[in-house]
Design goal:
By secondary structure, the protein is mainly beta. It contains 3 helices and 16 strands. Helices cover about 15% and strands about 35% of the residues. The radius of gyration is 20 Å and the shape is globular.
Length: about 240
């Protein structure tokens, strides 16, 4: 489901033209995220829980677009980190380079501050599970310097949580892990964009992530470990 949603979303950015001086809005080109528009149910982050929702995986596309815009040296006008650190968003550039989107509240925006049109090309290879954004324009000899990310203020994650399976799909006496623990942290990196000896951008980008606990759903008759946090089953989504 995740790969299918990435493919559908990526196709919407293939061939996009951004005029000189204009703002690129990810949500504008993404459009409607629904089953009618080709998306399927995957996993999305809502509040303090990872749940099933239409379009799970779209943030992999926005994250890839964000990293391309950073490397191209464009001014980033709007970007939001995810609530907690997600390992597959950190492959490649590292922690703190993700971009969460959620129509219509959270968008990814950058400005094409060159004097020429920007052409966006997307390449999705499902067999290798890779997505590439390519930006084509007229070079203006800008140099982009991005530091490695620095991780500070680490907050250890809490103890494991056990809940009765709300969908009753876990067999009696068994348990299924649905959330995976990760420590909270503040992550930052710096970016400089220089052209002809003039500094166009000199920024420190900070992302703050909350700690995330292991969560297990258990079936009828399962006895959670002694000392574990046991909560009532969450109300299933309508």
């Amino acid at each position: 489901a995740r790969l299918a949603n990435i493919r559908v979303a990526a196709e919407r950015f293939h061939g996009v033209l951004v005029p000189p001086g204009k703002v690129f809005s990810f949500n504008e080109f993404l459009g409607e995220v629904s089953e009618a528009s080709g998306f399927t149910e995957g996993l999305i982050i809502v509040g303090n829980r990872t749940v099933k929702g239409i379009g799970g995986g779209v943030c992999q596309v926005s994250t890839t677009a964000y990293q391309a815009a950073l490397r191209a040296g464009f001014p980033i006008l709007e970007r939001y980190p995810h609530g907690y650190r997600v390992s597959y968003y950190e492959r490649g550039m590292g922690a703190g380079f993700d971009a969460a989107v959620f129509t219509p509240w959270a968008d990814l925006k950058f400005r094409n501050d060159t004097a020429a049109y920007l052409l966006i090309e997307t390449i999705f290879n499902q067999s290798q599970a890779t997505l590439t954004f390519r930006f084509y324009g007229t070079p203006d000899d800008r140099q982009v310097i991005i530091s490695p990310s620095t991780i500070t203020d680490v907050v250890p994650h809490g103890p494991d949580v056990y809940e009765p399976d709300p969908e009753k799909t876990v067999p009696p006496g068994r348990v299924k892990q649905v959330e995976f623990a990760v420590d909270g942290a503040t992550v930052w990196f710096t970016r400089q964009v220089i052209r002809d000896g003039q500094t166009l951008i000199d920024e420190r980008v900070v992302s703050r992530y909350v700690p995330w606990q292991n969560v297990f759903y258990y079936g009828e008759g399962f006895k959670p470990p002694e000392g574990a946090i046991v909560k009532p089953a969450p109300t299933p989504a309508p």
